[in-house]
Amino acid sequence: MTEIPAQLEGWTKWGSEEPFEDHTGPFYMKLNADGGAHLSAFLCEKHHFNGGGFLHGGMLMSFADYALFVIAHDELEDQHSVTVSCQTEFLKGAAPLGELVYARGHVSRNTRSLIFVKGEIFVGDDTLATFGGILKKIAPRTD
Q1: Does residue 45 sit in helix, strand or coil?
Q2: What is the residue range of 28's domain?
C-alpha cells in the first residue's frame, strides 16, 4: 500500500488496488476540490523523468488517462468504463523534482454510452500539457 505524500493530505486514491497507476505514479484525486472541480495529482519524482532530465511524455499520457476518469467521476458513478481515445498535446516538459503535478478539466458531453472530456496538466501557473479523451460506459457497476 502506497502512503499518500504529506503535501496531498486529504486526497485519496481511485480504489484500494490500482497496480499500474500505483507503479506509474502513484496518482491521487480530490473530488470537489478547486471550486467544485475534481482534481488529480502526483508528486514529481526522479523515476518520472526521461534520460534528458525532463518529465517523461509517457508519464504525462498515463496521468492524462487517469485524470479522464477523475474528471468524469460523477458521470461514471454507477458505471464501469474504458478509454476509447486519449490525445495529449505537450506544451512544456519541465516539472521540478518534488513538485506536485495536477490535472483538471471538464466533461464536454455525456451521452448514453460515451463521455467526452477535456483537461490540462499543470504545475503552478505553467500548463505542461492539454488532453482530451472519450470514455465508453461498458457495464453497470455491481460492486
Answers
A1: coil
A2: 6-140
3-class SS at 76? helix
Per-residue pLDDT of the chain (143 residues; tens, 9 = 90+): 567 888 888 898 887 677 788 888 899 999 987 677 899 999 999 999 988 888 899 999 999 999 999 999 999 878 889 999 999 999 986 788 889 999 999 999 999 999 999 999 999 999 999 999 999 999 877 76
- Considering the domain boundaries, does residue 79 fall inside one? yes
User: What's the CATH code of the domain at 28?
Assistant: 3.10.129.10
**Do residues 119 and 68 touch, judged by C-beta distance below 8 A?**
yes
Grid cell locating 19: 497496480
> Domain for residue 1, yes or no?
no
Q: DSSP strand E in 51-97: where?
A: 79-90
pTM, two decimal places: 0.91
- Structural domain total, the chain: 1
- Nearest in space to 96 (alpha carbons), one of 59, 123, 72, 121: 123
